[in-house]
């Protein structure tokens, strides 16, 4: 893998100047990853970058786009990673895997961002990546030859954009809550408290469906969210009788309550930042286009922060694993 660095005022200018360094024509159809560093995303924004990419007949708009958090984009693409030696392959495979298994990150293409910027909500979210470890060894071959690499590339939150510029970060359960509300979560997990002991039961989410609809409440638009999720008992750290229907019913209610709190928190953060990353504006536009026409110019700053949102969560336990009762059942009583 070879890296070239070209300076210029815009991408068209840089592409032309690249001919002085590269003995081959740049073929953008092979591009599968676009990396934008944090500083550029904050100061200049994405609109100019996306404009030239969208106009170029050779460029594939299906290419993944990410934000390099805390480092320049050139530092990121120079980092050599184990298993997948090329960073672009590492990023795409990591995004595909973590999107399916965790639900805190999202694989976003250039086309997805362009569509979002032209939608009613206009607040894209893009997964950020960070180089962690020893940056001096990140581009050295020894980094991929070691069983414990000195530097690694990791997905690290969601970047939130407003008017084309990076304005905020979403991380952990807050990021997952946003993706859950957008029905982008496939599998994940929820840890539950049992008998005042925190993180005692792990509810392993195997599938879920989020329905978001708009309604009128006191002549004002409101949002209704209904989540149905199914899961297995992933593990328990306390003695409980999983063959007792009342215990399973309590776990289901607890899982539903935990997810509801998580979604409410994500909505609260989005409202505080005045960024409709939840795309509620699009839903209201489709349901009440006439009413939306009166609100759209002040949606983010005036109407969205005061939006009434109702949430209902139905959780179901499908399996308890290869055994109903844990190995530590004899060490305590777990029916309460």
Report on this structure:
- The chain has 336 residues and is of the alpha/beta class.
- The protein folds into 2 domains: 1-170, no CATH class; 171-336, 2-Layer Sandwich (GMP Synthetase, Chain A, domain 3), CATH 3.30.300.
- It has helices at residues 11-17, 38-43, 47-55, 73-78, 87-101, 110-117, 142-145, 172-181, 245-273, 280-287, 289-295, 299-303; strands at residues 33-37, 64-68, 125-133, 151-162, 165-170, 188-194, 197-217, 220-236, 308-319.
User: In oligomeric terms, what are we looking at?
Assistant: single chain
In sequence order, what are the helices and strands, one letter per element?
Answer: HEHHEHHHEHEEHEEEHHHHE
Distance between the termini: 60 Å
Helix coverage percent: 25-40%
Report low-confidence residues grouped into runs of 5 or more. Answer: 332-336
In angstroms, what is the radius of gyration?
23 Å
Organism: Bacillus sonorensis
Domain Spore germination protein N-terminal: 4-129
Protein name: Spore germination protein KC
Subcellular location: Membrane
Brief synopsis:
With 336 residues, the chain is α/β, with parallel strands linked by helices.
Main features:
single chain, 336 residues, alpha/beta, 28% strand, flat, disordered C terminus, germination, signal, Spore_GerAC-like
């Amino acid at each position: 893998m070879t890296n070239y660095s070209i300076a210029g005022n815009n991408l068209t200018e840089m592409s032309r100047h690249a001919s002085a360094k590269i003995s081959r024509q740049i073929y953008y159809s092979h591009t599968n990853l676009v990396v934008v560093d944090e500083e550029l995303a904050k100061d200049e924004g994405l609109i100019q970058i996306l404009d030239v990419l969208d106009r170029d007949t050779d460029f594939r708009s299906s290419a993944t786009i990410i934000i390099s958090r805390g480092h320049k984009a050139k530092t990121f693409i120079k980092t050599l990673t184990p298993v997948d030696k090329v960073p672009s392959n590492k990023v795409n495979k990591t995004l595909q895997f973590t999107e399916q298994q965790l639900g805190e990150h999202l694989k976003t293409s250039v086309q997805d961002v362009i569509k979002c910027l032209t939608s009613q909500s206009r607040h894209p979210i893009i997964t950020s990546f960070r180089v962690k470890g020893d940056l001096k060894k990140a581009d050295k071959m020894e980094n991929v030859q070691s069983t414990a690499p000195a530097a690694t590339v990791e997905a690290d939150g969601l970047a939130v954009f407003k008017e084309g510029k990076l304005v905020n970060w979403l991380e952990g359960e807050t990021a997952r809550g946003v993706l859950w509300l957008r029905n982008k979560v496939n599998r994940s997990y929820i840890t539950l408290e049992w008998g005042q002991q925190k993180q005692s039961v792990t509810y392993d989410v195997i599938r879920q469906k989020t329905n978001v609809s708009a309604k009128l409440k006191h002549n004002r638009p409101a949002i209704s969210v209904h989540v149905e999720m199914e899961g297995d008992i992933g593990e328990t750290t306390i003695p409980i009788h999983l063959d007792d229907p009342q215990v399973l019913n309590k776990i289901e209610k607890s899982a539903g309550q935990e997810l509801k709190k998580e979604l409410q928190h994500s909505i609260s953060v989005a409202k505080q930042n005045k960024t409709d990353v939840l795309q509620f504006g699009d839903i209201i536009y489709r349901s009440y286009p006439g009413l939306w026409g009166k609100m759209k110019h002040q949606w983010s700053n005036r109407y969205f922060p005061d939006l009434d949102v109702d949430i209902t969560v139905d959780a179901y336990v499908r399996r308890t694993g290869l055994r109903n009762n844990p190995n530590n059942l004899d060490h305590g009583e777990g029916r309460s």
